[in-house]
Amino acid sequence: MKKIWLGLGVLLLLLAAGCGVSRQAAKSSRSSAPVRSRQASAASTPPRPTRLAQLKAKSKAQLVYAPFGDSLSVGLFADKKASRFTSLFARQLAQLTGKTVTEAGIAEVGKTATNLGVPALPQLVAQHPDVVTIEFGTNDAVGGATSTALAAYQQALTTIVTTLQKETSAQLILMTTWSPNQGPYVNADLKFDAVVKAVGQTYQVPVVDLATIWQGHDDVTGPAGTVIPDFTANGPRDTFHPNQRGHDQIAAQLIKTLEVINSR
């Protein structure tokens, strides 16, 4: 009789242990289900394309690049117009996309976001650009980084960005101010740069920080005095504007920016 009761006790213990394992397995299965679901979801979500890939994927064979800015975008003081950063960028863009790239745009020496950027928007939109580099601020900062000047600049830059986002399908790239190393307006420039970065973050527009090129580098400007045939109307090369090395580095930064995943 004792053997019978002992056998029943062992059987009950085995059944209890089996139920516990079953419940633990069920719990483990339930807890791992969301993980598997998240992993499956992540695996099924295609990676975001780079800006360059999006331009390459466009159905048309010709792209329009529109530099929008001041004397830097005019080309002062590269060795020639064909080697200014805008033209270098256009040629590199053509090579990387396999498409013809037409350089259009609007740029004038001495202009600002307020007195050229905003008024010229209808003309720029009419060019139907695929890529726009927005390069204002260097002249805006000359009068100093007063609260009034910074607010006016932010409003103008915001208008430029939002208008182009609304009325074109262009890839936009914002550019910060230019200065020679230890130039006379560096303190103001950096405050205007902060506005550029804030606008870029708000509207998800990439920013090329030109300070990474000119800060601590004396070899990206000058030497002064050389007369460049393509820019004789603007006088000889100075120690303010980028020289050919400076233009080369600006173009390289622009291409690098297009190779980043588009967050929009």
Topology:
Layout: H1 2-44, H2 51-57, E1 62-69, H3 71-74, H4 85-97, E2 100-103, E3 106-107, H5 113-117, H6 121-125, E4 131-135, H7 147-167, E5 171-175, H8 186-202, E6 207-208, H9 211-214, H10 244-258
Helix pairs in contact: 4-10, 7-8
Domain SGNH hydrolase-type esterase: 68-248
Region (Disordered): 27-50
InterPro entries: Ester_Hydrolysis_Enzymes, SGNH_hydro, SGNH_hydro_sf
What is the domain total for the residues? 2
> Averaged pLDDT, please?
88
Sheet of most strands: 6 strands, parallel
- What's the shape? globular
Specify Rg, calculated over alpha carbons. Answer: 29 Å
Q: Can you count the helices? A: 10
- Helix/strand structural class: alpha/beta
Q: What is the CATH class of the largest domain?
A: Alpha Beta
Low-confidence stretches: 1-23, 25-29
In CATH terms, what is the architecture of the largest domain? 3-Layer(aba) Sandwich
CATH topology of the largest domain: Rossmann fold
- Spatial gap, N to C terminus: 79 Å
CATH superfamily of the largest domain: SGNH hydrolase
How many distinct beta strands?
Answer: 6
DSSP helix fraction? 40-55%
SSE ordering: HHEHHEEHHEHEHEHH
Strand content: 5-15%
Domain SGNH hydrolase-type esterase: 68-248
Protein name: SGNH/GDSL hydrolase family protein
Keywords: Hydrolase
GO molecular function: hydrolase activity
